[in-house]
Amino acid sequence: MSTATATINPDGDCCARLGRISTWRCRLVVFRDGKYCWDGPITGITWSLGQVEIRAQDVLAWLGNRVPHENKSFTSVDLSEIAQWLIQDGYQPDDPGHTVEVVGQAGVTGSRSYSAGVGQTLDHLSQLAEAGIDFTAIGSKILLLPETHLAPVGRLSDADMPDGLQVSEDGAGLTTRWIVAGSEDSGVIGIAGGTDSYYGLHERYVEQTEITDQASVDEAARARERTTSRVPVVIDTQQVTISPLAAIDVPSLVPGWCLDITSASTCRTVRQRLKITGLRVAETGGDDNNPGSESVQVQVAASGAETP
Predict the structure, then answer these.
(1) pTM, 2 dp
(2) Can you list the alpha helix ranges (DSSP code H) found in the chain?
(3) Does residue 35 or residue 40 have the better pLDDT?
């Protein structure tokens, strides 16, 4: 779930109007070069002397405040079908306006059972995402795509990041053996992985009580092992901006899509396609004496799902 913050120094009658905005009642909508690119409910406001700060989250925030509204069970269906139902059910009683686009099916089947009023919808969706499907939001549209989606939206090299970058390994993200327990009634337990010849043995146990059969819990364990069996490599452009001459379209830098990265500026050489995991865009408004400025930082990562 993405966030946006707008800091405003009001003048004229702006102050009176800004004093009437309210969290969850109002939305923050962002346009870039006149094109709609971000939308979500305002979730925090701070009024201070000569300044108003507005904080918002994207449209997924509403699902964080919703629960399943009916009992529902699925048997051996693609995870994208389950995700679509969770989203539809979550918004249905009071839809602020959204659409869903299935970029591609997960290619992973599973059985799940949900009870009315039990658990937050966004938590259910996030747990589903750990089993083989990705989701993200662009404006008011929620996109569902397979975990293995590797479509590139651009290429970056050291020349595009003149102030450098940071390459890191996150050892905390390594698990070579997963134990996933399903619902208590089913008693099913899925196990995937084992001792790795290079990393050794790193085990983790998790409960997913919405899973109802052995095939699904086995698939969930395999999906987790597939994405954590190698130490994730993370590349971050840090607190610097991507060169404005870089051959990329900023609105296309959406988590779930990929960038081809070529870098030899650190001791860790990288030449591969990596999945976008984070993006930060900051703009300072200009005035008559200052044209303002913009910075774009991107974070990409490789794990078992992205590494060829």
Answers:
(1) 0.86
(2) 14-18, 61-64, 79-91, 121-129, 214-228
(3) 40
